[in-house]
Amino acid sequence: MTFIKRILPFTIGILLLLSARAGKNQQAPKNDFTSIVGVAVNKDSLIQPASILKDPKLGFKNLFETKTLGGVTGTRLNPMAVSFVESYMAKYGKGLRGMRNWAKPYFDMIDNVLTQHGLPKELKYLAVIESGLRYNAISWAGAVGPWAFMPAAGRQYGLIVTNGYDERLDYYKSTHAAARMLTDLYLKYQDWLLVIAAYNCGPGNVDKAIRRSGSKDFWKLQYHLPTESMNHVKKFISTHYVFEGEGGITTVTKEETKDLLLNNPSTLKEEEFKTSTAYKITGRFNSSVIVKYTGIDQLTFNRYNPGFNDTIALNGTYELRLPTEKMNIFIAKRYQILEESMQLLLNPAGSNSR
């Protein structure tokens, strides 16, 4: 199975190159997923609140539960997104859930690439709403491929786009290009919802919405964005909820993320703080490897270090805090922990198969 996973991107790449040469203007064939989900091919329209359910919340009983995801507790759905998410889940949830099996090899490859770029894996759901994960998807605006690149943007991020050869159709190469673009957008906005909006309509339109609204909060500036882009962000949030059952670091604004961390109900008690030690670390450490070597359980680690994996993936540094005896173990084995963390980062499938 490990061998198959390793050769999958290469095999897909060969098939896609042959398809690209066959003709770049080939329209995406209709399939069951397209007819159910209808993403990327037709221009978006505003989804109205659900009316087919007497009580929509009955179908989404976990929608408002407070859970821990990536060390961030309390990833509640923003009230302004509730009706949209409920409607979207009612309308498209069955089709999206049907992707879980056939899309797994694609998700595994995308997860691996996003991890290499230090990006949250949840960003793979952007490819779902952009193209339904179809390599030959063509949007109403002329964007092509699983990540819906326009020709200029594709070339800007390293893809070859010519009349006879189009790397936007290549899952592996286009995912790397999308990761580079998402990284640039995050460096600009430091807010994943604005990144999703800018990916759809361009930074110029997002900057204009910020100026007109006087705010960098998506929920305040959303009506100054093109309607399609406003809905695009909500589709991303909705798709995340369908697949994950809750929100995450990429479904909240920058300010909401701060609030989640500051108002974390699992903050340390005074005695725990006194008997723990902080140590600034640099490098792509992974919480599961730290837990393995120090013997601390994952939930306790998350309480001491909220948002660890997401923060260190984006910033490269973190002020790690552990009970003093666990910190002594960490410091003694930190190089070994870092080496294994990097192996997990570069080859997650191989690490799990041991």
Concise overview:
This protein has helices at residues 2-22, 32-37, 82-97, 99-102, 104-116, 124-131, 151-156, 171-189, 192-201, 203-213, 218-221, 227-244, 254-262, 270-274, 287-294, 298-304, 308-315, 324-346, 348-352, and strands at residues 68-69, 72-73, 276-282, 317-323.
Can you give a write-up of this model?
With about 350 residues, this protein is mainly alpha-helical. The chain folds into 2 domains: about 1-260, Lysozyme, CATH 1.10.530.10; about 265-350, no CATH class. The chain has helices at about 1-20, 30-35, 80-95, 100, 105-115, 125-130, 150-155, 170-190, 190-200, 205-215, 220, 225-245, 255-260, 270-275, 285-295, 300-305, 310-315, 325-345, 350, and strands spanning about 70, 70-75, 275-280, 315-325. The strands form 2 sheets. The protein has a two-stranded antiparallel sheet. The protein has a two-stranded antiparallel sheet with strand order 3-4.
> Into which percentage range does the β-strand content fall?
5-15%
What is the number of beta strands?
4
Distance between the termini: 12 Å
The H-and-E topology, N to C, reads as: HHEEHHHHHHHHHHHHEHHHEHH
How are the strands of the biggest sheet laid out side by side?
1-2
Shape: globular
Rg (C-alpha, Å): 21 Å
How many helices in DSSP terms?
19
Number of discrete domains? 2
Secondary structure class reads mainly alpha
Low-confidence blocks of residues:
1-74
Name of the CATH first level of the largest domain: Mainly Alpha
CATH topology name of the largest domain: Lysozyme
Largest sheet: 2 strands, antiparallel
What number is the mean pLDDT?
76
Architecture of the largest domain in CATH? Orthogonal Bundle
Helicity range: 55-70%
